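Two proteins follow. First one:
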Amino acid sequence: MDGIVLLHGIARRSGSLASLERQLRSAGYATLNLDYPARQTGLRQIAEEVQQPIAAFAGGLDGRLHFVTHSMGGLVARALIAQQRPERLGRVVMLAPPNEGSEIADLLRGNPLYRAFFGPAGAELVTARPDELQSLLGEVDYPLGVIAGDRSLYPISSLLLPGPNDGRVSVERTQVAGMSDHITVHATHPLIMRNREAVRQVLHFLAQGRFERASAATVPTEAAAP
């Protein structure tokens, strides 16, 4: 059986991915939905902390190890894979990841309230990254599918983001060199993991290594997956 590690976003918990996890289990995957200290430490420390439970989970599988992530969880997965690549790494699907940072973080990184709430990792979500952080995230040389959203619940922050965006990350900055496929669905940043089309595309990429284009043009807005 193949297994899937789920990694939530900053200021979220594993419960935010519970509905998606049920869908993945129904599709026949074993799952590990991890909580991690997203606001207390930086990306390097987070990747180090999740390495052991992920290795233990992978050791109990007889198939490949996939990753499905939301928001900053995508950067955690990139750091983990770059530093401690699993032996039987499968496919990676990222929902609304700030792969190239977010202009919102650029604007707020000096704000004391932002720094206090989002912590060290929040400061690493900027668009201009130091070489050390770029090295930590590494190159994408594995099957990666990225799903972006283009709807927002945050009208003010959306005005600060260039082009289509989900209220937190622009569609353009979800992309990263080396990715296998990219698709945009009509979903918002905090709810994209519950969008039916996004869930369908996650399952399709895990099975096929690509997204399905036929129905992507007629995507429903947010709807809770069963």
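Second one, unrelated to the first:
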Amino acid sequence: MIAIATAPIYLTAKQCRELLAPDDVLAEIERVVAWDAAGLVRWPAPPNMNMRDRFENHYHLKACILDELSVAGFRFVSHNATDETSQDATRFVVLVDVESSRPLAFVDETWTYAQRTVASIVMAARRLARDGAGTLALVGAGRLATTALEYYTRLFKLREVRIASRRPETRAALATRATATYGIAARPVDSIEAAVRDADLVLTATNTGRAMLEESWIAPGAVVAALDSAEPGRDLAKKADLFVVDSREQLRKELTELFGAEAPGWVDATVADVVSGKHPGRTSPEQRVLIITQGMASQDVALAHLAYQRALKRKLGMPMPAALPVD
């Protein structure tokens, strides 16, 4: 039986970090992807709301209902015009019990956002990588790249990590951390090409909003994962042997604006198609695979709900008024 608090609670990002481990994140994302493939996630129409203010700051609202959990979730994000990944961004998930329509919790998803962003794409890379993939190229050395490294080490037996970033000190620091924490042979390199050539696994995790890769750098059999649609570049998006996204609908407009009207037609499958077996995924060791994911609101809602359930059991979270008094 699902526990429900008598009044909504507020959960901080720090509490979510205490309540959820990386293995929890991976398991929950796999579960939600399977639900989506089975039609057990309800989406609104239109699927999201986007606004900008006079300072060009961005506001996003997404929502869904997870039938398997009997919960609805509304995800609100606001961030400055230049950096959506900044920890200064505002990120909340509001959970609502679908039977009573009562709010259950307000969850700060600053920590879970980074976790699900990289966990979902690394999970997809694991599904689509060829056997023995163990050389990882990281393009970027910030928070998302650092978080991604932990998930890659959980899902792959890495032999080598090469790190390219704009600042020498950040790539050197991440290489040192990778060796000290995970015992991996990690090294900073001076160019993206030096990191990417002959790598089995590639992750681009920057906030540049532009193409970072040349198609000719990508080796046969490689899996390229990108957290921004622009980063792989047009040639790779068009010429990849297998192009996988988390949502055709969510990326259709962006792919069209970046690469042209034909670009959405280059997509071969969604992650849900691969996980559910509707698409076979990789069919040859030589196939070059491109994955672009931006994360699904269903994953954010599921992780917020899991944190909420565990918070109730541990009596964590700040109680909030069930209703405001009326004068």
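SUMMARY FIELD: The radius of gyration is 20 Å. The mean pLDDT is 93.
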